[in-house]
Each structure stands twice: as C-alpha cells, then as structure tokens.
Amino acid sequence: MTTVGAALPAVQAKARTRGTALPRAVAGVAILLVWQVTVRAFAPDFVATPTGIVEAIPAVVSSAAFLEAIGITLAATAEGLVIALVLGTALGLLMGRNAVADRALRLWINSFNAMPMILILPLVSLWFGYSSLARLATIVFAAIFAVIINAAEGAQSVPREYLEVGRSFRSSALRGLFEIVLPASMPYLLSGLRLAAGRAIIGAVVAEFFTAIPGIGYFILYNSRTFHHNEAFVAVIFLAGFGVGFDALVNWATRRYLPWYRRDEQTE
Amino acid sequence: MRMDALKRHGPFLLSLFGGLVLWEIVGRNTSAAFMAPLSGTISRLIELAGAGELWGELGSSLSLFVTGFVAAVIVGLPVGLLFARVRVLREALDVYIMILYATPMVALIPFILSLMGFGFAPKALVVFLFAVFPILYNTVEGARSIKPELIEVARSYRSSEWALWREVMLPYTLPYTMTGVRQAIGRALVGMVAAEFFLSASGLGGMIMTASQNFDTAGVFAATLIIGLLGVGLMRVGSMLEQHFARWRG
C-alpha cells in the first residue's frame, strides 16, 4: 500500500518533469537571448549581458576582493543571525508560554516586524557610526522579529498533555522548557530560521549600501558605480543563490536529521 | 459591557502606553544626538506638519508608492491569470519567476541607478519590482487551483474565453491575489523607502536622510514614525481587502 502510494507520485513527477523540461529550456534560452540582444542594441556597453556575466564569472570568483567581501558579509550575517536566534528564541518562548509577557510585547513585536527594516539604517548609523557594528545591528533587527514570532507560535502549539506528563514526573520548569517546549516547537523555529536568514543577508547588504563598509553589498555598489555591471551581477547571483541554497539546506537537514518534523509538507 | 471592553482592550492599551512611556524615559536620559523622546518627536512632527513640509513629502512618497503598486497589480494580475490558463507558458516560466522572486530586489537598485538615473521612473520601477512578484505568484497559485470541472462546465455551456475569464477565473482567483496584494503592500513600502534612500532623496525617506545628515534626531524619529504608521495603516487595508475577498473562496 505504502510502496504503491509512494511510487505513483514519483512516476507522475518524472513524467511531468519530462514534459516541462523542453518548454523550460526554450523559455530560458529565449529570455537570455532577448536580454542579450536588447542590451546590445539599446543599452551602453557597460550594462550586464548574459555572455558578459558568464565571461566575468571566473575572474570575479577567483578575485581576492570578491572572496573577501563574501567572507565579511557571511561572517557578519552568521554573527547577527546567532544573536537574533538566541535572543529571539528566548523572548519568543517566553511570550508563547507566558500570557502576560505575550500581551505586553505582542503589539510592539508585530509593529516592528511590519516596519520596513531599512528604516533602521539612519538610526543605527547614528548610533554606531558608519561601522560594522551598524551592520550587525541591522542584521539582528532584520532577523529577530521573525524568530520571535515563530518561536512564540511554536511554544503555544506545544500540546498541553506533554507538559502535564512532564509535571506528573516532577520535571523542573527549566527541564520542561529545554526538553519539552524547545524540541516540540522545533518545526516553528526552523521556519523562523529560514525566514530570518533571508532577511539577515538582505539586512547586511542594505547596511553596506548605506554605510559603504566593505562586504558583498559594497562590492555590488562599487562595481555598478564604476560601470562593471557584469562583475556586480555575479554578486547578485551569489546572493540569490544564498537565499535558495540556505532554504534547501535547512529543508534537507530537517528531512535527514529530523524526519519527524514535517510541518513544511503540511503547509505547502 | 464596559468591563468587557476594558478587559479586551486593557492589555493592548497598557502595552501601548508602557512602550510609549519607556520611549519617553529612555529618550530623556540619553544624549539628544542619539535619541529623541516621544514628546520631542511629537513636537518636531507638529513643527514639520505646520511648515507644510511633512504633507509635501508624504504626498511625494504616496504618489511613488501608488504608481509602483498599481503598475504591479496591472501587470501581476492578468499575467498571473494568463499563466494559469496557458499551461505551456506557466511550465516554461515558473522556474524563472521563482528565481526572480528569490532575488533580493535591493541588490538591483545600484544597477537601476546607473541605468536610469535619479528621476521618478526608476524609483517607481523599484516599487514595482518589490511588489509585482507576490501578486503574480499568488495569482498563478490561485488560478491553478481552479477546479477543472468549473472550466469544463463553462465550456459545455459554450462560454467564450472572455466570459470564462470574467465569470470563472477572476472571481475564483481574486482571493488568492489579495493575499499577494497584502504581501506586496509590505514589500512595496520597503521598495519605496529603499528607492528614496538609495536612488535620490525624496519623500519621507529623503526627509529621514536630510534629518540624519543635519543631526536632527527628532526629525529622523518623526519621519520614521510617520512611515511606520503609514505601514501599519496600509497593512490594515491589505488585511481588510484579503478578508473581504476571502469570503469568495470556494
């Protein structure tokens, strides 16, 4: 029963990919062709074209400037993400398990979450100067509210029976938090992480645009201003790839190591 | 009755009030160059409103927002329906739409700047780019989920293509599109501020830039507050639209 059920969609999916591969490939070639021809015909020489980008890739990817920029931005993003995860999860779990905290903070958390993240840029550069600290603050601000909201939702979703069993066995509140609430809200925390990571790297890029400190955002800004659009576009491709790649990584890791968390399949 | 209302809105009001008081206290106890208290922000806001500066910039920001956003709806909705109707088109292009959806639009701003300069059009384009993909994506998803029976029945009654779009596809898809519209409102607002920050300073975003360059911290807070309130208000409109059309969901 299960084998048939599992095999059938796989067969269908295979048939479908075979059906879509051709139109997809044709469309891809058409898009690149239109891009190439339009730019060549109407735009100045420095504007990025598909062939120009492909030609630029080896030089850019092996250049010290690009690798250094990526390293700086990714390190800052990771640092900010860790801060946002630790603080945000703590605050979110508190809100999820404590009605008073939830009522006191919910309004502000939701408002800040709805606020365009880039509004913080003038303020952080005022507070921290045009420095990497301003970037870190932007990253944390960009990422933390998604973490808080998801952690709170996760903590609220913990079945009451779990906690009651824990209490019956006289587990302490702290052990209950770490051994029941935290694992039970993991699917929510993971979707919070995915959202937060995407926002964090964008936060890093806009902070670099704004403060002109070294990093991948500044790499894009500098190269596009000096009319090296092809080179700058390689960095944009990297950014888009990071977003997709991180998502895929979290999904893969969830399936591989936490296969019992299948929240994605339910929501999608 | 009044107790009920108090119980329901009490925590909200208390939280609002508590936050504002905290803002005031922190603002009063830090250097004026770093932080403006609530009272200072409000009085600066009144000053700016009185001078008419605020209204001009608000109007400029709103016209940018509306231009980009309306363009996004005008493009996103019909193209989304077309994708849903013409399967080859959808299958050929959905990967590329997803790629564009995943591309951080802010990263494209420097290109737009050096291609199109500082005018109104590039800024509207930024707002458009931020807003169009959620609308397009949700429209395609909605239109794809139309029950084939509905279209078959319409066909059996010899419905014309135009009538099929108007009577079946559009009403069925609009609730989904409105989810996209709500998401797009938030993104378009980001696009608006990003355009005003990074392309050429204008509108409320420009007001923030000017104020921060002049170390007018109260001015920064005042303009930020207005954009924040604008965001909350627009989101509310988006949610209302979404809920209104949600009743159509079949």
CATH fold node name of chain A: MetI-like fold
Secondary structure class of chain B reads mainly alpha
Tally of structural domains of chain B:
1
The share of residues in helices of chain B is: over 70%
State the secondary-structure class of chain A. mainly alpha
> How many strands, which pairing sense, and closed or not: the largest β-sheet of chain A?
none
Number of helices of chain A: 12
Q: What does the average pLDDT of chain A come to?
A: 85
Q: Which band does the percent of strand residues of chain A land in?
A: under 5%
Uncertain regions spanning at least 5 consecutive residues of chain B: none
Any idea what the CATH superfamily of chain A is called?
Answer: MetI-like
Report the biggest beta sheet of chain B as strand number plus sense, adding barrel if it closes. Answer: none
SSE topology string of chain A:
HHHHHHHHHHHH
CATH superfamily of chain B: MetI-like
How would you describe the overall organization of this protein?
- The complex is a heterodimer of chains A (268) and B (250).
- Chain A is mostly helical and 268 residues long.
- Chain A has one domain: MetI-like fold (Orthogonal Bundle).
- Helices cover 86% and strands 0% of the residues of chain A.
- Chain A has helices at 2-42, 50-62, 64-97, 99-114, 120-128, 132-157, 160-168, 173-184, 186-211, 216-225, 229-257, 263-267.
- In chain A, α5 packs across α6 (132-157), α9 packs parallel to α10 (216-225) and α10 (216-225) packs antiparallel against α11 (229-257).
- Chain A is globular and about 75 Å long.
- The two termini of chain A are 24 Å apart.
- Chain B is mainly α and 250 residues long.
- Chain B has a single domain, classed as MetI-like fold.
- Chain B has helices at 2-28, 38-50, 53-85, 87-102, 109-116, 120-144, 148-156, 161-198, 203-213, 217-246.
- In chain B, α3 runs parallel beside α6 (120-144), α3 packs antiparallel against α8 and α8 runs antiparallel to α10 (217-246).
- Chain B is globular and about 75 Å long.
- The model of chain B has no long low-confidence stretch (mean pLDDT 87).
- The interface between A and B is large, with 52 and 48 residues.
